[in-house]
């Protein structure tokens, strides 16, 4: 089997258990055994167990990212992330491996969107216009504008504004990630719940950012809070969320985009304060 990662000695690759015994181990025990032995067979066994997680997150993201990459391409990139994550994961941090991998996979998808620069110029221009208008109106009102206020400010009908949200949904997410990156955070790291008893000491800046983000989410409408919770915490895709809410997938995309617009304004206000 093809080896990846650091080269290990013949002694290190000899596992103290047989393949049959390894297959009986749970994921945590298998991970610990691999880290102790460096046995590449154990590594691939572990990777194969987590392949469904890669596919699930890729499917979840496809509702937003279907225009820039094939599902198989996302899964292939995800498997490379998974292989790297097995070696980079630090179990003494008291963070679940599944949580660590999920965060890395989502980050990979956003990076993939940035690298491919797949957005048509017209869509990119619309996104810039929407973000600028949101910032301007929020500054005038001293709060996040409502959808009807945004539509009026842009000279659109409510339906046209909702369509614009759907069309620029992915650009909105990438834009939101860029704002977070400017102050050292990522959307998934901030939205994921902290593990109980996690001893990791976060920077003051990140903790403040998390609090601002929580305040922003708390100020949202219930359907916006629910969409964010179902997408980031429950890891449902757009179609599954649509079934839960009894609306169309396009409507879920609009709600998601609108929620991220709100959070982007909250974060920018925090940065500029």
UniProtKB/TrEMBL annotation:
Pfam families registered for this protein in UniProt: Sigma70_r2, Sigma70_r3, Sigma70_r4
Gene3D superfamilies, sorted: 1.10.1740.10, 1.20.140.160
Matching InterPro entries: RNA_pol_sigma-70_dom (IPR014284), RNA_pol_sigma70 (IPR000943), RNA_pol_sigma70_r2 (IPR007627), RNA_pol_sigma70_r3 (IPR007624), RNA_pol_sigma70_r4 (IPR007630), RNA_pol_sigma_FliA_WhiG (IPR012845), RNA_pol_sigma_r2 (IPR013325), RNA_pol_sigma_r3/r4-like (IPR013324)
Naturally occurring in which organism (per UniProt): Candidatus Flavonifractor intestinigallinarum
Assigned keywords, A-Z: DNA-binding, Sigma factor, Transcription, Transcription regulation
MF (Gene Ontology): DNA binding; DNA-directed RNA polymerase activity; sigma factor activity
Gene Ontology BP, a term: DNA-templated transcription initiation
Record region (Disordered): 1-21
Name of the molecule in the record: FliA/WhiG family RNA polymerase sigma factor
Source organism, top-level taxon: Bacteria
All copies of domain RNA polymerase sigma-70, residue ranges: 237-263
The keyword Transcription regulation appears for this protein: yes
């Amino acid at each position: 089997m093809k080896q990846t990662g650091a080269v290990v000695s013949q002694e290190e690759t000899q596992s103290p258990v047989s393949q049959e015994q390894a297959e009986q181990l749970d994921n945590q025990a298998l991970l610990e055994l691999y880290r102790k032995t460096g046995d590449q067979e154990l590594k691939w066994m572990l990777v194969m167990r987590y392949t469904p997680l890669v596919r699930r997150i890729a499917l979840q993201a496809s509702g937003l990212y279907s225009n820039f990459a094939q599902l198989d391409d996302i899964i292939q990139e995800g498997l490379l992330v998974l292989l790297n994550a097995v070696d980079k994961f630090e179990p003494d941090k008291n963070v679940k491996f599944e949580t660590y991998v999920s965060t890395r996979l989502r980050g990979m998808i956003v990076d993939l969107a940035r690298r491919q620069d797949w957005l048509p110029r017209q869509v990119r221009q619309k996104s810039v216009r929407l973000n600028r208008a949101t910032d301007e109106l929020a500054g005038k009102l001293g709060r996040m504008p409502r959808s009807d206020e945004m539509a009026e400010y842009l000279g659109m009908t409510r339906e046209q504004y909702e369509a614009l949200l759907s069309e620029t949904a992915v650009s909105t997410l990438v834009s939101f990630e860029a704002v977070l990156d400017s102050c050292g955070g990522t959307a998934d790291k901030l939205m994921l719940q902290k593990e109980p008893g996690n001893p990791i000491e976060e920077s003051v800046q990140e903790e403040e950012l998390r609090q601002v983000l929580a305040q922003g989410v708390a100020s949202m409408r219930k359907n916006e809070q629910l969409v964010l919770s179902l997408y980031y915490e429950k890891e449902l895709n757009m179609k599954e969320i649509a079934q839960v809410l009894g609306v169309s997938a396009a409507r879920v995309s609009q709600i998601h985009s609108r929620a991220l617009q709100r959070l982007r304004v909250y974060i920018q206000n925090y940065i500029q304060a």
